[in-house]
Amino acid sequence: MSESNVVDRSEATMEKIVSLAKRRGFVFQSSEIYGGQAGAWDYGPMGVELKNRIQRFWWKEMTQLHDDIVGLDAAILMHPRTWEASGHVENFTDPLVDCKKCKQRFRADQIDPAKLARKECPECGGELTDTRKFNLMFKTNIGPVDDGSGLIYLRPETAQGIYVNYKNIIQSNRMKIPFGIAQVGKAFRNEIVTKNFIFRTCEFEQMEMQYFVKPGEDVKWFDYWREQRWAYYAKLGVRMDKLRWHQHGPDELAHYAKDAYDIEYEFPMGFKELEGVHNRTNYDLTRHQQFSGKDLQYIDQENGNERYIPFIIETSAGLTRQLLMVLCDAYEDQKVADKGNEDDWRTVLHFHPTLAPITVAVLPLMKKDGLAEIAQEIRQGLKQEFAADYDQGGAIGRRYRRQDEVGTPFCVTVDYQTKEDNTVTLRFRDSMEQIRVKREELEAQIKEAIKGYKRA
Ligand code: GAP
User: Fold this and answer.
1) 109 Cα to the center of ligand 1, angstroms
2) DSSP string of 161-214?
3) Is the CB of 155 under 6 A from ligand 1?
4) Is the pLDDT at 150 greater than 90, yes or no?
C-alpha cells in the first residue's frame, strides 16, 4: 500500500489551511513581494468578508442581545500615562534570551528548563545570553521632534480605551451598574515568536467587553459571563467538543486578577487559548484614578449615593485568532466518490451560513441559450438579501467544488428546465443534496435553511 493511501487525507493540518487561505484569497503574507513581513498578515477578499462577519456576529451578541452593553471605538494612540497606570510599562514583558552563535532569539519560558539552566541554545547548542525582560509594546514618536518627548505606544490591548472612557459613557448614556462596554479594534504586540500562521501576530484585532459590577457581586457576574461566552461558540456553529476551559493557576494569574479562565480550542497544533474571561477586580479603575487624579468612583443614586470603584469582568477575544479557529473548524477534505482519482475528494469549508463570505452562488448550467441571462437576473435579485456570487466558467461539478472550497453554503443552478417551469436547483454544500425549487420561493427557502442550519 502506498503511503498516500495510509495517510489520513481528511486531517486538517495547518499547512493545508495556510495553503487554502492563500489560494482562495483569505489570508496573504504581508508585503509578500518584498519577502514578507513577520508577524503581519493581509486579509484578502474572502478573508475580509469572513472577518467582518465574525466581528458582526460578536457585536450583535454582545450589544444587540445584551440591553446593558454599549459600544465604543477608542483611538489606538492613547496618552502614555495610560500604560503606566495599566502596568504595561512595568510588567508587559516576556523573558528573553539570545543565542550568541546562531543569533536566534527565544522566549526563556518556552525553552527546556535544563537547557536554559545550562545556557544551551535549543537550536544550535551555542551559548545563550542571560535572561532579560523584553517589553512587548511598540513605541513610536508623536509630533515633529524625535527627541523622546513625543513617546507614544501602539496600544497592546483595546481594554484600556474602555476604562478611560467609563465615566464619559456613564454620563453620556446614563448607564447604571451593572453595565458593559464593548469594543473591537487593532492591537499591537512585539511578539518574539509569531509562528502558527495568524495565531500569534504583532498586529491583530481584539473583541473585548468590560462589564462593570458592584464589588461583592463580581463572582456572580463572572460565572454569568463564563456561561454566556461558552454559549456564544455554540451559536457560532463550531464543534463544541473542540473547546475546553482552562483555569489560570496561581502562577499564571495576572497580578490584578482574582480569577481567570481561558476558553481553549483544539487547533491543529493542539489546545490553545481562544479567549479569556477575567475577574479584574477594581485594579484598573483604581490605578487610573490614582494616575489621572480624576474621581472614578461610581455614585449609586438608587442606594443613597453609595460610592465605590466598580469591579470589572472582562471577556477578551482575538478576532483574527477566532478567524483562524473558524477556518480550522470548518476545514474538511472529504471523500465523496471512489473512482480512484483526484475527483474522489473535495475540500469543503463547513462555515455557518451566517459567517460564509459568499452565501449563495448562482450558476448557469451553460452560458448559451439564455441560461446565463436568467442566472444573472436571479443573482441580481438575491444580492439584495445575501452575498451572492455568479460563476459561469467550467464544468458544473468543478464550479461546485470551487464554491465548496470557500464555504458557500448554497448553490443555485439554472438549467433548461428553468426555462420551461421557472424552477432551479438548490444545492446544499454539506450534504451535496439538490432539490428543485420554484424561482419565487428561492429567497424564502435559503432564509429558512440559514435559520435551521445545523452542521452534520
Ligand atoms: N485585555 C486582556 C487581554 O488583552 P490577552 O490574553 O493578552 O488579554 C486576549 O489577549 C486575546 O487576544 C487572546 O485570548 C487572543 O485571542 C488575542 N491575542 C492576544 N495576543 C495576540 C496575538 N499576539 N496575536 C493574535 N491574537 C492575540
Assistant:
1) 18
2) HHHTTHHHHHHHHT--SSEEEEEEEEEE---S---TTTTS-SEEEEEEEEEEE-
3) no
4) yes
